[in-house]
Amino acid sequence: MLKRFLPNEYVQSIFEITPQFLKERNIHGIITDLDNTLVEWDRPLATPELTAWFKEMRDNGIQIVILSNNNEKRVHKFATPLGIPYIYKAQKPLGKAFRKALAIMKLPKEQTVMIGDQLLTDIFGGNLSGFFTILVVPVTETDGLATRLNRMIERRILNWFNKKGLLQWEGTKGGE
Asked: SUPFAM superfamilies from the entry (predicted)?
């Protein structure tokens, strides 16, 4: 049962995910979480480094959809200047928003990756929907209230994975 929370890959940062890495796995589309995956949950806009990462993906023919449980105002303000389609109030880990993201990209799930910083929403939802999943270390240690509750459960699962040798989790970046 707990293996449904196990990502296919684990990276320290979104910037470790390159077009070459994705193409080697026949991945042409990214469904990504927003808060604490791409930027801090309280940062309204993309950093220049993240904007360049999005451009590199697009230049290599990789589509992106932002899939967030946050509200429309938050996600719209972030995604619109970048020209990235988005889904807000996604209700991850439920599958409906994942299917909607696929429809936007017109790609099969076998060619799509789900990237996120939370096991209980992003990775679990991606795994249930049959995606290749990548867990990233949260970009900051601070979270909203609901996420803090998820993190307590997550730590127990991550410790279990670590003890079983399934995933070496190094925690958060501490706001780097």
From this structure: HAD-like (SSF56784)
pLDDT tens for residues 57-90?
Answer: 999 999 999 999 999 999 999 999 999 999 999 9
Q: What is the pLDDT of residue 143?
A: 65
Sheet holding 9-11, edge to edge: 9-11, 132-136, 112-116, 29-32, 63-67, 86-87
How far apart are the C-alpha atoms of 4 and 37, rounded to whole Å? 20
Handedness of CA 128, 129, 132, 138 (dihedral sign): negative
DSSP 143: -
Half-sphere exposure of 20 (CA within 13 A, CB side): 2
Whether residue 65 contacts residue 84, with contact meaning beta carbons closer than 8 Å, is answered with yes
**CATH dotted code for 2-163:** 3.40.50.1000
